[in-house]
Amino acid sequence: MTVEVDVKPVRSRDLALIGYDGASSILEVVFRAGGVYRFQEVPEGVYQNLMAAPSHGTFFQKHIKNQYAYVKVS
Question: 23, 31, 42, 69 - which has most CB atoms within 10 Å?
Answer without folding.
Answer: 42
